[in-house]
Amino acid sequence: MTAVRLPELPFALESHGPEGEWAYEGGVLTGSAGAKQDRFVPPGGDTLEPASDAPRLLGAAPDGDFQLIARVSVGFAAAFDAGVLYLHVGEREWAKLCLELSPERPTVCTVVTRGQSDDVNSAVVEGDSCWLRLSRTGGAFAFHASADGERWTFVRLFTLGTEEERAAARIGFLVQSPTGDGCTATFDRIAFRPNGPGDLRDGS
Question: More exposed terminus of the chain, fewer Cβ within 10 Å: N or C?
């Protein structure tokens, strides 16, 4: 499948990178990464190796502020397996909000790549699922996580690229299995809101 429309989203999605076996049924989006698939440029590394990629399903975000929300569940099998909300601004400008096995316990993790990637662990998660939210607010992007989809914990605020590049951002979903033989993740309760969060830090 190279393109798909989800009824929850006001934009079409297209697949990028390796084949992700993306499927959508009954409000649930499923994707799979193959062995050793990841999208990460190690700090101090010069390039994103051609083989260092992971399945992505992305679409052009509408103008203005927004929130992309999903409950992410991951079939963890190896360290750093993850389901991800993904933001793409440029070939070397992108970010990930992950539910990741990092390396022994499910954890909310973030990566922001500006030529090279950083890597930040946030909160440990009980179980194999968590709500994640990617937002654009003005000239910045925000990451949040939630146990129930109601009260949100602030994770990160950052910017990427130029104003023109940010306006043309693509957003969506990614699955990775950097050290393992493969990983499957599901995304349900998917929602898109054409506005940013009212307050980044008050739980709303």
Answer: C
